[in-house]
Amino acid sequence: QVQLVESGGGLVQAGGSLRLACVASGITITRNVVGWYRQAPGKQREWVGSISAGGITNYANAVKGRFTISRDDALNTAYLQMNSLKAEDTAVYYCVALTTPQYWGQGTRVTVSS
C-alpha cells in the first residue's frame, strides 16, 4: 500500500553534487515528517536530516551547510540535495516517513571518489 522509492544515487567525485529523490505512494509525504538516513559499509545507520510537515528542516552536524532537504507537493516527493560531497559521505541513503508505522525506502547508493 505504502511505498517509498529512492533514486538519484551514483558515483560522484569529491566536491561534486548529487540530488536524491524519494517518491512516495500510498501516503502524502508532505503531511508527515520525512527523514533521511544513511549507512556506510560496516557502519551503523546514521541520521542525516529531516523535514517536518511544516517544512522545518534540521540536519546532522556532519552534513550541515552542505545538504538540503526539500519537498515537491505535486510530485509527492522529498529530495536530498547534496553539495560539496566528501568521501565519508559514501553510503546507502534511505528516506523514511516517520509515521506509525514507519515506512522506509529501499535505499540508493552514493559513492564519492577522490
Describe the structure.
By secondary structure, the chain is mainly β. It is 0% helix and 52% strand. The chain is built from no helices and 11 strands. It has strands at 3-7, 10-13, 18-25, 34-39, 46-51, 57-59, 67-72, 77-82, 91-97, 103-104, 108-113. Strands 2, 4, 5, 6, 9, 10 and 11 form a 7-stranded mixed sheet that branches. It starts with a strand and ends with a strand.
Uncertain runs: none
The end-to-end span amounts to: 41 Å
**What series of H and E elements makes up the topology?**
EEEEEEEEEEE
Number of alpha- plus pi-helical segments:
0
| Radius of gyration computed on alpha carbons | 13 Å
Give the overall shape.
globular
Structural class: mainly beta
Helix-residue proportion: under 10%
Strand portion, in percent?
over 45%
For the largest beta-sheet, the strand count, sense and barrel status come to:
7 strands, mixed
Mean pLDDT: 96
Total beta strand runs: 11
